[in-house]
Design goal:
Arc Repressor Mutant, subunit A, alpha+beta, 20 helices, extended, 3 domains, two-stranded antiparallel sheet
């Protein structure tokens, strides 16, 4: 095949670096935006943080600027004004995070009070490190023994680890180190006195009939145990006192995954009048350093020429100032887009934001807000992703305000939240001896005028965290 050259004319759409920067800033929540601005201040020498008490003006959109225009500028205003970025009390509130011991550190501390040899202590500490945050050891001891041989350099056996695991089972919180739910519940029951009949019956259920108990085959249990319903209810009451996740009982150290929500918007309502602001209490305000502008001015001769020896320095400072102006402009555009989108959502869901009644939520999808703001659907998606608004009735996840529309028999459109509320009410009021199946729930909703399929009922039920009918059964 011959190799040749030819010209091809094609039309392509590419994003500029500034557009990419704007898109990335748009989807950042407040906490990450604060970190991103501080990172930019460290990387760009001409950027500096502005004091809060300095009056600021809105920065204009960037354009091609000559050196003469840089020299004529006395100062570069910050990218946002004070009134748009503070709550009405003008007192930014810092979230104080208190550290503490983790569950593993707490367990290792308790091991120190046990009479263990150095070898046993090292093995036990490794076992503790393999325990999940909810208190379970979900790895088999043979695999743990292999890992210890490779990482610690100690040869051990599953039998030796089993003995040390028994020591861990004696630590607080009770049930920690269990390998499954059955062992966890039995460990907790073992700490209680078995003097009462309900507790003895509860232990027998968990020991001999755990599968029937987990599947809620209560009729089989009544027959096999030959007990009355009252006795069975007493035994179940004892089991309900146990914790299925013992690690959650220890909360001093918290968890790295614990979410600390800082709202991106603050919504105040007084006498039915809303006041929406962007939460920027901890976000630093930046400006271009006057020192570098003066440096640039000093490197230019009175007739506006740049000396050959200073040409490289002037070009470097100019590129940094260009980058800083683009960054400041991107922050301003982010501010404007967020406020514009949130104000549209506020107008669309006005009745809901008055009192927080979810039944008043109107059906709303990303396209509805995109059409009203004139922005693209992908832009609206980036705005609402990972963003929260603080209201008088709590902090609300913006994405939770969006719901699909369902149509009634009369042709009226209702939000899926309304159907979920009816679904929850039906399940709360059902006979727990004979829970309502998804098909029965579908018939009830259809009778109320909501045209809905059984698979949709199952989807909404799972979204509400409600188990299937068989697992909701009670005696």
């Amino acid at each position: 095949m011959a190799i040749n050259q030819r010209q091809v004319l094609s039309l392509q759409q590419k994003l500029s670096p500034q557009q990419i920067q704007m898109i990335k800033l748009l989807e950042l929540p407040t906490v990450q935006l604060e970190q991103r601005i501080k990172q930019e201040i460290e990387e760009n020498i001409v950027l500096e943080e502005e004091e809060r008490d300095t009056d600021s003006e809105t920065e204009e959109a960037p354009r091609q600027i000559s050196i003469d225009e840089y020299l004529r500028e006395d100062d570069t205003p910050s990218y946002k004004s004070r009134i748009n970025n503070f709550s009405k009390d003008d007192k930014p509130r810092q979230a104080v995070l208190v550290g503490g011991r983790s569950l593993q550190e707490y367990l290792v501390e308790q091991l120190g009070y046990r009479h263990l040899t150095d070898r046993e202590m090292r093995l036990a500490v490794y076992l503790v490190g393999s325990i999940d945050s909810d208190g379970y050891l979900r790895r088999d001891l043979e695999s743990v023994a292999d890992d210890i041989a490779f990482t610690v350099g100690l040869e051990t056996t599953p039998e030796e680890l089993e003995g040390l695991l028994g020591v861990i089972h004696q630590l607080e919180p009770v049930g920690v180190g269990a390998r499954d739910l059955r062992e966890c519940l039995l460990l907790q029951l073992g700490e209680w006195s078995a003097s009462s009949r309900p507790r003895r019956l509860a232990r027998r259920i968990l020991t001999d009939y755990f599968d029937e108990f987990a599947k809620k085959h209560f009729e089989k249990l009544l027959v096999r145990l030959q007990i009355t319903e009252e006795e069975f209810r007493e035994a179940m009451a004892e089991i309900r006192k146990l914790s299925p996740k013992p690690g959650n009982l220890y909360t001093e150290g918290g968890s790295e995954a614990t979410p600390y929500i800082i709202p991106d918007f603050i919504l105040d309502c007084e006498d039915g009048v809303f006041r929406l602001t962007l939460n920027g209490g901890n976000v630093p305000e930046v400006k271009i350093s006057r020192r570098y502008q003066e440096m640039l001015r000093a490197m230019v001769t009175p007739d506006g020429r740049v000396r050959e020896s200073d040409r490289e320095a002037v070009q470097f400072v100019k590129s940094k100032i260009d980058s800083a102006k683009w960054f400041i402009s991107a922050i301003q555009q982010r501010h404007d887009t967020l406020m514009r989108t949130m104000q549209t959502i506020l107008d669309y869901q006005h009745d809901y934001f008055l009192d927080g009644d979810r039944s008043k939520l109107r059906p709303m999808i990303l396209k509805d807000i995109a059409e009203r703001t004139g922005l693209d659907v992908s832009t609206i998606s980036r705005v609402v992703n990972s963003k929260y608004v603080q209201t008088q009735f709590g902090i609300v996840f913006l994405k939770s305000l969006f719901s699909e529309a369902m149509q009634t028999e009369s042709g009226e459109e209702v939000s899926s939240y309304e159907i979920k509320n009816i679904l929850r009410e039906c399940i709360d009021e059902e006979d727990k001896r004979r829970p309502l199946t998804d098909e029965t729930l579908m018939d009830i909703l259809n009778a109320k005028g909501y045209r809905i399929a059984r698979r949709t009922v199952a989807k909404y039920r799972e979204m509400l965290g409600i188990p299937v009918a068989r697992l909701r059964k009670q005696i």
